[in-house]
Structures are given as structure tokens and as C-alpha cells.
Amino acid sequence: GVPAIIGRRGVERVVELEIDESEREQFMGSVEILKASIPLLEDDIIG
After folding, report:
1. pLDDT range class, residue 33, cuts 50, 70, 90
2. According to the model, what pLDDT value does residue 47 have?
């Protein structure tokens, strides 16, 4: 997957990143944290 700008109608624009390996690892760490947070947020919103 790639980062993208999401709007009301879905993906508006794909964001191209030019990053080195260290930055990529940090980015992927953030991705994993966000993935783990989604179910928790859904529980708070949906109940």
C-alpha cells in the first residue's frame, strides 16, 4: 500500500514518498500503530 489523501468520494490523490531505509522503517512502525488503533477507535465509536 501507499499513503493517499482520502476524501468523500474515496482516494483523491496518492502521495509519493522519497525516503531512505531508516525513514521507511519509522513510517512502517507508525502504520502498525495506526492499524492496531483502528479496532479500539471502532469500539469507542460503534460501542
Report:
1. very high
2. 72
